[in-house]
Structures are given as C-alpha cells and as structure tokens.
Amino acid sequence: MRNKLIRLISLAVIIASGCKEKPPKIVFMYQTVNMGVLDSTHKITTKTFRFKNRGGHKLVIKNIASDCSCTVAKFTKDSLSQGQEGEILITVNRDQIIERGNLERRAVVESNTTPILHSLIIKMRVN
C-alpha cells in the first residue's frame, strides 16, 4: 500500500512539472534591415520587421524606442497569443538626419520576454 502511494505521488509530481507552460518568446525573421539610399528624392522610407510568438504565454510588446528622432516605430498588435505573428514598421525621415554617409540606427523593443529588450538594426546610406 505504501509503495502504491509513493508511486502515485511521484507520478503526480512528474505530471505537474511537465504541465508548466513555456514563457513568451519573440522570434524575429531578421533583426537587421537595409533602408537603402536616402536622398532628396527618397526622403521617407519604411521597412517591416516580422516576428512570431514561439512561447506558451501571451507576448506583450510594451514599448519600442529608437536612438534617433529620425526613426519612428509602430507595431501591429501589442499582444500576441502563442503562434501568432506580428509586424513592427520602422519609418526613417531623411530630413531629420544631419549626418551623411553609411549610417546605422537602432530600435529597442521592450516586451514581457526574457530577455526583456531586443535590438533591431536599421542600416542606410544618406546622401
């Protein structure tokens, strides 16, 4: 009787430990985009970062901050269930960039994942 009780408790512990849901996990299709050449004829350019929630819980995008006022980020959904996909649209305005040449900007995505912050890299040539 005691052995059956021990086996039953062991089985319950194994089942309970296997039922833990995976935390949210953001997976980007790519983390770098090239905006190409920005000049007087191509002043505003937008590119898309696609991502997917590959975790077990709801993924929540809390904020996206860029390192330059020339870069604006918008996202399609602030929360995604397991397996859902989303997009982050990055728009760069050449008129707000003082420097010229090959440049790199960053946008940082804050979410409820581990790690909390994810960097997106935006490359461009400004004439």
Q: Quickly count the helices.
A: 1
Look at the helices and sheets and give the structural class.
mainly beta
Rg over C-alpha atoms, rounded to the nearest angstrom: 22 Å
Low-confidence stretches: none
The portion of residues forming beta strands comes to: over 45%
- CATH homologous superfamily label: Immunoglobulins
How far apart are the first and last residues' alpha carbons, in Å?
82 Å
- Let me know the average pLDDT: 87
Per the principal axes of the C-alpha atoms, what is the gross shape? elongated
For the record, the CATH class is Mainly Beta
CATH architecture: Sandwich
What order do the helices and strands follow? HEEEEEEEEE
Report the helical percentage: 10-25%
Overall tally of domains: 1
The name CATH uses for the topology is: Immunoglobulin-like
- Widest sheet, order of strands: 2-9-8-4-6
Number of strands: 9
Largest sheet: 5 strands, mixed
Give a description of the structure.
- It comes from Mucilaginibacter ginkgonis.
- InterPro entries: DUF1573, Ig-like_fold.
- The chain is mainly beta.
- The protein has a single domain (21-126), classed as Immunoglobulins (Immunoglobulin-like).
- Helices cover 13% and strands 51% of the residues.
- It is built from one helix and nine strands, in the order H-E-E-E-E-E-E-E-E-E.
- Strands 2-9-8-4-6 form a five-stranded mixed sheet, with no helix packed on it. A four-stranded antiparallel sheet has the order 1-3-7-5, with no helix packed on it.
- The chain is elongated and about 55 Å long.
- It starts with a helix and ends with a strand.
- The relative contact order is 0.25.
- The mean pLDDT is 87.
